[in-house]
Design brief:
Layout: H1 6-16, H2 21-28, H3 32-39, H4 47-56, H5 61-70, H6 88-100, E1 106-109, E2 115-118, H7 140-145, H8 157-174, H9 178-187, E3 208-212, E4 215-225, H10 232-235, E5 238-244, H11 247-254
Antiparallel strand pairs: 1-2, 1-5, 3-4, 4-5
Helix pairs in contact: 2-3, 8-9
């Protein structure tokens, strides 16, 4: 099987972003002719040019390495496990964020919704989950939507499914991924009869009602990512922090009387 050239890969990304050669040229401050020559293989771009075009196309770091390799250059971005010695500072920062959010739940997941870390407030919710779903890697979509996981606890599983569908579809639009696509096909493709799509404005603040310990806990969440990371692992993880949406829920987590 022939390996795609850097020009072909850049053209694929440009088409995916629905940009013309002129659009990309203007954004990257180069001539449209130069973009055309690169895409057709009539000129070999420098590493700096590859990265400039990739940045304007919002290409993920993992795929920028692939572009550099296709152009004959060494990868620029490392991918080190979060548990490695080199990532100690980043790991400590993530840990501080998770701990500081207690007594409310928070967790960290990667680009495929696999949970990387969580705080102590999240652990009680795993008690009723089938141990098979807790074998690494623990996947948030499976955990939320599988009947052996959180699904029985959710007051409206349809909202959770719609949220995951919207977010996963956006991720696949940004960067195709076979494993993530398979997960989408398994859990998110078919909408049950009568299930309405999640409104766009609810993506800003998606409420969640969880039936747990004989109560209805009302929560909402925020997402945090690392700014301008130079490591693939950091670029692909997200911290999701859950907050109480009413006083009763806050009292449950803090142990304070109403």
């Amino acid at each position: 099987m022939r390996t795609a050239t850097v020009g072909e890969l850049l053209r694929q990304w440009r088409h995916q972003r629905r940009l013309s050669q002129l659009d990309l040229a203007i954004a990257a401050d180069v001539s449209a002719r130069h973009v055309s020559l690169i895409e057709t293989g009539k000129t070999n771009p420098s590493a700096a040019m590859v990265l400039r075009l990739a940045a304007r196309l919002d290409v993920p770091l993992r795929e920028r390495n692939r572009l550099l390799l296709a152009a004959g250059f060494a990868p620029r971005y490392a991918e080190r496990p979060l548990g490695s010695t080199e990532m100690a500072a980043a790991r400590a920062a993530v840990g501080r964020v998770l701990e500081a959010h207690e007594p409310y739940p928070a967790l960290v997941f990667d680009r495929r919704w696999n949970i990387v870390a969580s705080n102590r407030a999240f652990e009680p919710f795993l008690a009723a989950v089938d141990p098979e779903l807790l074998r690494p890697p623990v996947n948030m979509i499976r955990l939320a939507l599988d009947p052996r996981g959180f699904a029985p606890m959710l007051a409206d599983p349809a909202d959770a499914r719609a949220m995951f569908r919207n977010r996963t579809a956006r991720r696949l639009a940004i960067a195709p991924d076979p494993e993530l696509a398979a997960l989408y096909d398994e859990f998110l493709t078919l909408e049950p009869a009568g299930e309405a799509p999640l409104p766009v404005d609810s993506e800003v603040l998606t409420p969640m009602v969880v039936r747990f310990a004989g109560r209805e806990l009302r929560l909402f969440s925020t997402l945090t990512t690392f700014g301008t990371p130079l490591d693939i692992t950091l670029a692909e993880i997200t911290i999701e922090a859950y907050y109480p949406a009413d006083q009763e829920t806050a009292a449950y987590f803090t142990g304070e009387p109403l």
